[in-house]
């Protein structure tokens, strides 16, 4: 299984406790969802693009 983050955008100037970023999540070459962190020390959020998570 190959897991990749693509189209990563990070905002160092707005980061506080953790790095503020968002990215597209791909599994085995297929877009599976998004990941993001709001930069305030919380955990990274992930959401699948479909109910199964993979298109």
Question: What's the overall geometry?
Answer: elongated
Overall structural domain count: 1
Quaternary structure classification = single chain
Number of strands: 4
Topology as a string of helices (H) and strands (E): EEEE
Helix content: under 10%
Distance between the termini: 16 Å
Physical arrangement of strands within the biggest beta sheet = 1-2-3-4
Care to describe what's here?
- The chain has 55 residues and is an all-beta fold.
- Helix content is 0%, strand content 49%.
- The chain contains no helices and 4 strands.
- The protein has strands at 3-10, 21-27, 30-37, 45-48.
- It has a 4-stranded antiparallel beta sheet, with no helix packed on it.
Short description:
The protein has strands spanning 3-10, 21-27, 30-37, 45-48.
Give the SSE map.
Elements (H helix, E strand, L loop, with lengths): L2 E8 L10 E7 L2 E8 L7 E4 L7
Antiparallel strand pairs: 1-2, 2-3, 3-4
Features:
4 strands, mainly beta, 55 residues
């Amino acid at each position: 299984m190959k897991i990749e983050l693509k189209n990563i955008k990070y905002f160092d100037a707005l980061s506080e406790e953790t790095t503020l970023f968002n990215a597209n999540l791909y599994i085995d070459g297929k877009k599976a969802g998004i990941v993001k962190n709001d930069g305030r020390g919380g955990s990274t959020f992930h959401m699948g693009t479909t109910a199964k998570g993979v298109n």
